[in-house]
Amino acid sequence: MRGVPFPATRHSVLGALHSADAGVRAQALATVAEGYWRPVCAYVQMRWELSRDDAEDTTQSFFSRALSGRLLERYDPAKARFRTYLRVCLDGHVANERAAARRLKRGGGTTAVPLETDAPAFIAPDAVDALFEREWVRGLCADALSELRDRLQRRDREIVFQVFERYDVRGAEAGARPTYAALAGEFMIPVSQVTNHLAAARREFREVVLDRLRRLTVNDAEFRAEARALLGADVAAANP
To answer: For 98-127, how does the pLDDT look when each residue is reduced to its tens digit (9 = 90+)?
Structure first.
C-alpha cells in the first residue's frame, strides 16, 4: 500500500520530554496531559469504581504529581509502550491515594510509596490493558472529532462536518446509516454534494488523527504501528 505522508507538525511531544529547555519540557508535559486526560479519567472511573467527580479529582492530582515530579520524563521506550507505562503509574497513584486515605482515617502519618507501584489486581491484567486501550482510542477520536468540527466551522464549512457526523458518527453508533439520498433531502443538497462532503471530512479527520498520533508517540516505528492499528493503513516514513 502506498504510504500516507506524516503530518507536517512538530516532533513527538514525548521526545520533547527530554529537552534541556525547561519551557519545551513544560509544553510537552502539558500536551501529554491534554491528550490523555479523557482516557485517564474514564479509565479511573471504571477501573477503580469512582464517581465522575472523584475520577476527575484523581486525574487532576495524578497529572499534577506526574508533571511536578518529572515522572513522564523517566519513561524508557525500550521497556514498554508509553500508554502501558502511564497506566501502571496511574494505578500506582490511585493505590497511593487510597493507602494515604486509610492511614489518615486511622490517625496515622503518611509515607509516600513509589508512583510506579502496581495497584491491586481487581481485574485480570489483560483486561486492565484492554480497558485503558479502549478508552485511549475513544478519547483520541473524540478529541479529533472536536478539532475537526472547529476547523470546519472556522472555514464556514460546518455543513461538511454535519453530514460527516450524521453519517459516519451517529449513523455508525446507531448501526444504521442513512442513505445518501436521505442525507441529501435532510440537508437540502445534491447527492453528489453528500459524496463530496463525506470524502472531504474523512480525509481531514484522518489528518487530525494522524497529527495527534504523531505528537503522542515516541518514535516513527510506534507512530506507524499506532496508525496501522487505528486506521488500518501503512504510513510513510517521516520527513523532518
So the answer is: 888 777 776 655 444 444 444 444 456 567
Cβ-count burial 176-189 (b if 16+ within 10 Å, e if not) = eebebeebbeeeee
Residue 6 belongs to some domain of the structure: no
Average pLDDT estimate for 166-188: 94
Residue 27 within a domain: yes
Output the furthest CA–CA distance in the chain (Å, rounded): 71
Q: What whole-number distance in Å separates Cα of residue 51 and Cα of residue 121?
A: 20
Could you tell me the residue range of the domain that residue 41 belongs to? 13-231
Contact in structure between 136 and 83 (CB atoms under 8 Å): yes
pLDDT digits (tens, 9 = 90+) for 6-30: 333 344 677 777 777 888 878 888 8
**How far is it, in rounded angstroms, from Cα 109 to Cα 123?**
30
Which residue carries 472547529 as its cell?
150
Q: Are 154 and 161 in contact (CB under 8 A)?
A: no
* Alpha-carbon span 229 to 227, nearest angstrom: 5
